[in-house]
């Protein structure tokens, strides 16, 4: 655990416990030490430990039962992703934990999405990049995404082949234009038939829709993205404190 890490302590503890489980210190079927003893050994509070164990439980690594304790049930977490939105770096983590397969790139003139209402393309055209994301270590699609950019960033088009981490990352690489701020809008939605087929979900199933507006330091829009997630594979976690 690092005092200088930007990751909250409970997430560091969760990762550390997982590493010890995977190293064989606690085999599958083993009951972990009592919370009070484990927290003391780690030099943390029981609240922090409980938060860490909650993450492992959500990921299918441990099972917590009253009068039994916390039992290891797997060495491998369920392949899923929790999108933390407690800062710029954490908001951009999805790109680092998934790969986006580029399915379609096209140029559009009319307003392609209501999320762009109020924004003006300096070229009069928008670049639309559509694709499907999958989690690292899995071939199962988790997200359908369409990214919209001003056509002035068309220099990234030759790089939009196969799989990419993020479109905004390509903009930063080619144009030296990093993301300075992000605004999100999260809502439930009913999957469109093509989205349901792509995500292997029933017709009419619910999805988790996230719209994001990524801005440069001068306030200009770098990209707008509308994503629809499989809620069984992607979830959103928000946190705040009195200083934010």
From TrEMBL:
GO aspect biological process, one term: negative regulation of DNA-templated transcription
Name the Pfam families for this protein.
GntR, UTRA
**PROSITE patterns recorded:** HTH_GNTR (PS50949)
- CDD domains named in the record: WHTH_GntR
Domain of life, source organism: Bacteria
**Which keywords belong to this entry?**
DNA-binding, Transcription, Transcription regulation
One MF term from GO for this chain? DNA binding
Where's the HTH gntR-type domain? Answer: 7-75
From the record, what ranges are coiled-coil? none
Query: What PANTHER family does the annotation carry?
Result: MANNOSYL-D-GLYCERATE TRANSPORT/METABOLISM SYSTEM REPRESSOR MNGR-RELATED (PTHR44846), MANNOSYL-D-GLYCERATE TRANSPORT_METABOLISM SYSTEM REPRESSOR MNGR-RELATED (PTHR44846:SF1)
What is the protein name stated in its UniProt record? GntR family transcriptional regulator
Species, as recorded: Vandammella animalimorsus
């Amino acid at each position: 655990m690092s005092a200088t890490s930007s990751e909250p302590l409970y997430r560091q503890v969760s990762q550390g416990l997982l590493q010890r489980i995977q190293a064989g210190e606690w085999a599958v079927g083993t009951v972990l030490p009592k919370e009070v003893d484990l927290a003391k050994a780690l030099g943390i509070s029981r609240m922090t430990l409980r938060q860490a164990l909650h993450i492992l439980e959500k990921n299918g690594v441990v099972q917590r039962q009253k009068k039994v304790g916390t039992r290891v049930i797997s060495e491998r977490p369920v392949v899923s992703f929790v999108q933390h939105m407690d800062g710029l770096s954490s908001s951009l983590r999805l790109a680092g934990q998934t790969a986006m397969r580029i399915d379609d790139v096209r140029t559009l003139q009319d307003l392609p999405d209501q999320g762009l209402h109020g924004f003006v393309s300096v070229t009069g055209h928008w670049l639309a990049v559509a694709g499907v994301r999958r989690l690292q270590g899995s071939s199962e699609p988790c997200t359908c995404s369409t990214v919209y950019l001003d056509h002035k960033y068309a220099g990234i088009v030759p790089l939009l082949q196969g799989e990419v981490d993020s479109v905004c990352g390509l903009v930063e690489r080619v144009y030296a234009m990093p993301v300075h701020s992000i605004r999100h809008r999260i809502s439930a939605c009913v999957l469109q038939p093509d989205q349901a087929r792509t995500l292997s979900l029933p017709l009419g199933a619910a999805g988790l829709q996230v719209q994001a507006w990524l801005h440069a330091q001068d306030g200009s829009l770098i990209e707008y993205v509308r994503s629809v997630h499989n809620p069984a594979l992607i979830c959103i976690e928000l946190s705040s404190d009195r200083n934010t």
